Amino acid sequence: MTASPKTTTIATMHSIPKTKQRHKFYPRSIGIILLGFMSACSPRVETVSQPTASLRQPAAIELFTKGYRQISDKFIEPVTISKLALEGMKGLSAIDPELIISRHRSSITLSTHDLTIKSFQTPNKHNASAWAGLTVQLWREARAHSISIQNAQPESIYEAIFDGMLSKLDRYSRYAGKKQARKNRNRRDGFGGIGIRFRYKREIIHISRVLKNTPAAHAGLKRGDIITHVGDVPLKGLKSRDIISQLHGPIQSVINITVRRPDRLKPLTFEIERALIVPNTVTSRVKNGIAIIRIRSFNQKTSERTAKHILKAQTQMRGNFKGVILDLRGNPGGLLKQSIKVADLFLTQSSIVSTRGRHPDSFQYYEANFEDILKGLPLAVLIDGKSASASEVLAAALQDSGRAIIIGTTSYGKGTVQSVIRLPNEGEVTLTWSRLHSPAGYVFHKLGVFPSICTSGKNEEPSQLIKTALSKHQQLLSTYQLWWQSNGVSRQKRNDLREICPPERRKNKLETEVALQILADTMLYARAMMSVPELAQKPLQSPDREISSQPTTP
What we know:
Layout: E1 39-40, H1 57-74, H2 81-90, E2 100-104, E3 107-111, E4 116-121, H3 128-143, H4 147-151, H5 154-166, E5 174-176, H6 178-189, E6 191-193, E7 196-201, E8 204-210, H7 215-219, E9 226-230, E10 233-234, H8 240-247, E11 254-260, E12 268-273, E13 275-277, E14 282-287, E15 290-295, H9 302-317, E16 323-327, E17 334-335, H10 336-346, E18 351-357, E19 364-367, E20 379-383, H11 390-400, E21 405-408, E22 416-422, E23 428-437, E24 453-454, H12 462-470, H13 473-484, H14 491-498, H15 510-520, H16 522-529, E25 552-553
Parallel strand pairs: 15-16, 16-20, 20-21, 21-24
Antiparallel strand pairs: 1-4, 2-3, 3-4, 5-23, 6-13, 7-8, 8-9, 9-10, 9-11, 11-12, 14-15, 17-25, 18-19, 18-23, 22-23
Helix pairs in contact: 1-3, 2-3, 2-5, 9-10, 10-11, 12-15, 15-16
């Protein structure tokens, strides 16, 4: 998902197929206008002492101006700037419950339960900078009459105000301050680090793993080394998050790591240059000629690493390679474009997904244009009630195109896309701005993806489960028709559809064993695929505008 002022960059390799993208979207810059307000007369009250936390008024107005404007402009449902600002200002009561912010026609009043503090004239409901100025004025007045507000750091105020407004929109829209936003970006895009994992026990930092092809590996750090210092900073006594802060830093910056090694008498010091570290979300194993690839989430390297695991398995097994199982159980999502790229690994000239919202730039259409990396070999996808968002996009794309058999339970049903808006304070707003439509045209949200073989509530033998599922071919196709025709039906009807194969968290081996049996038997796989709907039966109508931005699904 995009992060102002520029979109999130997704790393690609030439060997990885690319989706068809017709346009690039770059959020326009926002000019900041500072406006003053005349307040109405109000009773004189006693003020508290001089505030201890600084308030930088121009920076705060700039922050709220951008926040109000972008949220009102991009949120999936219409919402006025005046409503956002009012709900945001009400959020100050999270810091001081005695404060009451209310609207009376053309004025906003700040009061307590028994005292009116001040009233402010309301600006035009669409004027972002004016409402931002009013927000800061009200904040300043609250500081003069509330010890809790006066002692709150600006970041705490920002959080209270943005939480106040976003909580009224939907459950997926949220604010992250500077520190949390940095962590979010690290998860999406990677971070500057050295490539180790450590265990922290009794104030001793043991390296538990050195990641391959990372600065730590190249420098010679080993599993079992005990880190004592980063530069001149002793790590003993620090909390885990503080240790991580010492190890992380700008890419290409140099740090010195001092370690104790069990077979050495003297400490060892390593000079290491930090590099981009993107957490690995893909693992694989091979069983009976079938590659079982688990994707835990989608980040910048997921499609690249998925392709590498497949190519490695093909090379190792040569002519004995029989197919792939993609395990998406428990996968909460991540970068939408990475799930699209993974789908494109297996599809040829097929629709993958479309997104549609209120903002013109939320209309996007993605399709595959490259060769199937498996060249038609069998493919199965495992999903459960925790498979959400980007993982649902991948499952539906492979199902609707008739490319894979889906095994498991109905998925989570998180079918909205969030845009990440970067704010002047280095925080960010994650904002719902479009809905996902499968290639068959149905909306994922609050519905999910329906499996071809349902394992919900099942603990029987895989062979018996397969036999029972394949005997219900016509019933399954009828269910898919209901799924495809679900747009616009009531929430109760969607819940009824989900109960046909209730979503569950599945952690046992049943789904894997079912997939292994089906993929290992050519005739059985052919029978199972007869119950997979074909997109050709219901062509997807492309949206009017076909553009591309950088969405992410958390």
